[in-house]
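Problem: given the chain below (141 residues), write out its structure.
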Amino acid sequence: MFGVKVADGWLEFPEAFKFGYEYLKANPTALGWWTYLFVHIPDNVLIGNGGFKGVADEKGMVEIGYEIAPTYRNRGLATEVAQGLVNYAFSHPQIKMVDAHTLAEANPSASVLEKVGMRKIETVHDLEYGKVWHWRLRQEI
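Solution.
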């Protein structure tokens, strides 16, 4: 539909798309604070997706998430995506902080979040994944 090739494994969580579609139909104000598709322009390939988990809460916090196809990992693209999401969020004055979660272990996602300036603030229990690290970056004023 977009005239791009699709990288193998670009979508690790396919169930999220139906949920996202239904969510946006019911919550049109979340447009811009939901899912984006990532296209690697030089190769004209859809390589991943991610975005926000909804509009900001009452404290001005949004949460980001992202995934990149395996063949496009370790190229700095996840860092570029995460930085782009952070920059977009902080371009809106109501956003005071950006959060994220990773598995509670040293891994590439944790490294990406550190590179964009996030700091691990706590370990929490997730019903699906068990222990996870909660990350945060506050808007500098």
